[in-house]
Amino acid sequence: MAKRFIITFVTVLLFYSNIAFANLNVYFFYPDSPISNLSQLKKEVDTLFLNANFKINFQPFIRLSDFKEQIKKQNNAILLSPEWAMPTKGAGKILLNGFAHGKPTYDKVLIIKSTSNLTIEQLKGKTHAMTSMGDDVNLFNAAFNNKLTLNEINVIEVNKDVDAMFAVALTQVDSALVTELSLERVKNLNPRIIELIKVIAKSRPLSLPSIMSSMENGAKKEVKDFVEFMKNLKNRKQNPFLKLLKIDEWREVK
Amino acid sequence: MKIVLLLLLLILIPVSYPAVAAEGPVVILLSDDSSAYHGPANAFKSKQKVNTLEYNLKGDVENAPAVLREIMLTKPSLIFALGAKAAFFSKIATVGRLETKVIFAMVINWQRYNLLDGQKNIIGISTDIAPGTQLFNLGLLSNNIKKIGVIYSDEYSHEVIIKAKQAASLLGLELVLLPIKQANGFNQAWRKISSSIDAYWVLRDPVLYTMENMHWLIERCLKEKVLCIGQSDNITKLGILLSINPDAANIGVQAASIAKQIINEPTPSTVIRDPIGTNISININTAKKIGLTLNPNVLSMVNEVIGD
Fold this sequence. Notes:
The complex is a heterodimer. By secondary structure, chain A is α/β, with parallel strands linked by helices. Chain A has 2 domains: 24-103 and 207-252, 3-Layer(aba) Sandwich (D-Maltodextrin-Binding Protein, domain 2); 108-204, D-Maltodextrin-Binding Protein, domain 2 (3-Layer(aba) Sandwich). Helix content of chain A is 36%, strand content 23%. Chain A has a 6-stranded mixed β-sheet with strand order 2-1-3-12-4-13, sandwiched between helices. In chain A, strands 8-7-9-6-10 form a 5-stranded mixed β-sheet. Chain B is elongated, with a radius of gyration of 21 Å. Chain A binds chain B through residues 34-40, 62-63, 65, 127, 129, 154-160, 162-164, 166-167, 169-170, 172-173, 185-186, 188-190, 192-193, 196, 244, and chain B through 42-43, 46-47, 130, 132-133, 136-137, 139-140, 143, 167, 170-172, 247, 249-250, 253-254, 257, 260-261, 273-274, 276-278, 280, 295, 297-305.
């Protein structure tokens, strides 16, 4: 009898503590994130929100499939990801856009081995490494004005740009698509590696992560507070979004 | 063990299958319930647009012929075999059935099983990251590394050393190589090279890769302040500075990409591929102890930071 009472008591306690301490679920997915160490990102984001007395459950995802699966399971959340990774069915609306250097976009470049003479058109039928660009082939195809399309190449998805870069330098793949930021960082760390590859095309600008809410109406106040907090982040010293994701600020969508 | 496997081979081969082009499902075959296979299997499945069936040998070699017979009756176009048992039985089951392609992965020391011999429908993803990828990652840690020590056995690491030499020349690195024949020659070999190297690369060579040698090595790396890198996050936890391992789930993604490529090809062009996705661990306590200042950009590129 006493055992049953304790179990019921603990269950009720856990249920209410969950409501009290995890008001907002924030799911994060950004395959071109400059940081691969998602535990560090989580730690710093958790600290940021904790210091601001915000009750946030921040959950980063490495793979798009896991991100989508989680949204399917628990769609009552704030999503922090590029727009193309967000669900379209029954989705909420975009609240904020990430900006870096005054732009809501970033660029990616197509690289091949420095000794190779392949042109973008000649990459058809070749093997290509890149981070995820989602299931919609149009994003990739449009990035290169249909000069090269996803159906024409054999893609190996990787989780980090450096893996794609090294695969090109070591002739494990014929080409790769990486961010300009990753290229710059590797150049600063070891210019010799960059000498082994060359850029043959630059993509059209791709959108930086946005913030979308799929929360029910009942959580309107929490979402509003969250949006206000994110908008004012640029004034904070310890801002993991700037430090780790290189996103200068979050601006409202007009 | 060999006799048992040969008997199983004899049981499997006489099964006759209709000689038609394989247009059937894609099959994932797991050797057992090991959690190591879940990541690659799920990642592979998430990339398939066709019907995928999953089978599990549950570690039971005696029941394997029956499982394979059931699989082959579905006329699979491709089998993604995870682990040595799944790879071995998939090879046997596709003797004379080359239209069914086999991709194996997560097979430690895959060379021991002769998986690629005598059949042209099989392709594998190695469990070891390419030497070039190891050296390139080392190159990101510090620009001042010029000489890298490697102790190896010619018996097990001959191929690795050839590839490592090619990769080192790309980066202008010099490999200080010392072959040994027995595990107990490791300490003496280290003493010969340690004063002339900037970094040391630990190979997963069975001749030298013993618990005793690794514990001794970690102590020497710290004491002599040598930047040591390995291929297992376990030894990074024990004190080796950096390790570069294959990203297990990414092997599934890579296999899916290979599958798309080879499913309609008569014979695959490269039979063993290097895993491209990496999982990097760094021990920052070791970095402090050996006096290495880590660039914040390096820290953001690694997947796991061990230490305070």
